[in-house]
Amino acid sequence: MLRIITILILWVFILIGISVAGFYIYYGIAANNARSSLSAEASVLESNGIQFRDLNKNGVMDPYENPRAPVADRVQDVLSQMNLEEKAGMMFINMISMLPDGSLQERPTPSNPFTFMIPTNSEMIVRRRMNHFNIMQSHDPAAMAIWYNSIQKLAERTRLGIPITIASDPRHSFPSSEAAAMFAGDFSLWPEPLGLAATRDTVLVEQFGDIARQEYLAVGIRLALHPMLDLATEPRWSRVYGTFGEDPDLSASMGRAYIRGLQGNTISRESVATMSKHFPGGGPQDDGWEAHFSYGKDQVYPGNEFDLHVSPFVEGAMAANTAQIMVSYAVGVGITEDGVGFAFSPSIVTDLLRTELGFGGVISTDWAVLSSKRILGFTILESPGWGVEDLSPIDRAEKALIAGVDLFGGESNPEWIVELVNSGRIQETRLDSSVSRLLRDKFLLGLFDNPYVDESKAGTIVGSAPFVEAGKVAQKKSIVLLKNGEKESSPLLPLGPDERIFVQNVDSTAVARYATVVNSPTEATVALLRIHAPYEPPREGGMLENLFHQGDLDFKGAELDEILSITQSLPTIIDIYLDRPAVIPEIAETAAALLGNFGASDEVILDAIFGQFDPSGRLPFELPSSMDAVREQLEDVPYDSENPLFSFGFGLSYSIMDTVSLSTN
Length: 665
Description:
Helices cover 35% and strands 13% of the residues. It is built from 20 helices and 20 strands. It has an eight-stranded parallel beta barrel with strand order 3-4-5-6-7-9-11-14, surrounded by five helices. The protein has a six-stranded mixed β-sheet with strand order 15-20-19-18-16-17, with helices on both faces. It has a two-stranded antiparallel sheet with strand order 1-2. β3, α4 and β4 form a beta-alpha-beta unit. α1 packs parallel to α4, α3 crosses α13 and α7 runs parallel beside α8. The longest helix is centred in the first third of the chain and has 35 residues.
């Protein structure tokens, strides 16, 4: 029997080995076949004293290859040469992957399940004619630059040599959700947008945008899938951390500075284009539930403040000439016709954004509104195509095109658009208007003339010492001092070096540079606890749900008891990460000092506590006094909870122990 079991196990391993080998051989052959259809790289030629890249390899300088020709002429020329498949491919943007050494991802990697969800590099660029991608990974900057140049070389060998535009979600902060932002890795580390808003410093915010621009350019990222100009009027919403808070004027002023830093006053070869989101404002989610999920599909306006949520896009994004705008997933209850999501609504996309507001840039859907996403047959993201759930992906694509969108996010299926045109359901001229806008951005960014980056400089630019220091300064300016002692006459902070300090969720080695660290509260003169705004477990247990912090905002049960057992036993400093407006009345009452942060290192928090700088941040939203107050407030109305624990704009300092005045400048 043992011999039979051994033979069976051996055969299982042999079959697995054969399957893996076949898997790798299949993808290797597919990649080689795709690349075999490519032409030569573009030669650099000269005509009438003008050097140009011969992208279509015909030996003459076509208007679209002429770096001195007007952008409109170049767009029209390349558009006239594009076939239907190339136009359709340009209208899709999806995630793309790379290997850690900077080589192309030409087969799924078992250690990275994400790679089973998207096609390989060659498949998307060569076979599907796509040239817009969202890079999710943060590898070594030099490797990222090598990979970027490699995919541009691949694109250069296609029929017309249309260059790639690489996009990125935010990657400079301490993300609350990896589904919508990435850890900074080697990039300079800044507070979340909430923290930038807490500084009230538009000069600093523009500096952030400029530094992000330089770091992005170094590795080839030319499109920022940010900023978020949604208003955080519903405190339970999981995406609050990515906003500039709940005040429309503050959000607009921060957004303008942010976009100017990335794009400049006009889009040029030194710009990173911005895709501002989520029009017409994704903040007023019904009970705060996330619009990625069916139970959160509704956006509601019980206070009739729809226009208030649109205003940061007008006064912020469009005033700063944002290149692109992303439309929200949600269904605007009482707003969109036929109860469809905003991306499928002509009254929102065309009538409001394009016609009434006069936006002439690219309009993109949010990710995956056409089709659900699966890995090895398992659904990991139900398509948030709300209001059109009964339609097939191709029917949804038709409806979105009729609504007026230019770009489909999180999809890799140009064949749907090809079929719509070939069947006569959509006219090819409809595609031309969208493709023209997408081409215009590529020309303005200089991608047709020289898309390549200097691989040797990427590592010296990304995460350079001055950029890291600037991020640290921003972290410091974003810290909000909410409480300091029981009375203004007896502040606890700043601490001195003679304290014996008990810490939780803080690097004790870092604390030891400031004071004596002890192992229990009974040995301590003071305690320091770093905590995170609370949230509920996933409602439906889905994989993606784990990446979003939703639900109630108050600490409960054992978690609250553990915190109070310390705050009630000795003077305690609480530092809370406010990715959402936490409900903390018991903690605020019993803590001796209370700090709010929006992404800050232990070092920065310790510098604040030990008086290395004077906190100056101000809340970008109010902190409600109870969950009852949260439930009674209106989702679309800012700062309207009853008797908030701390009001919008609140902040103390050591030098002036008083509420800092409200200001949105």
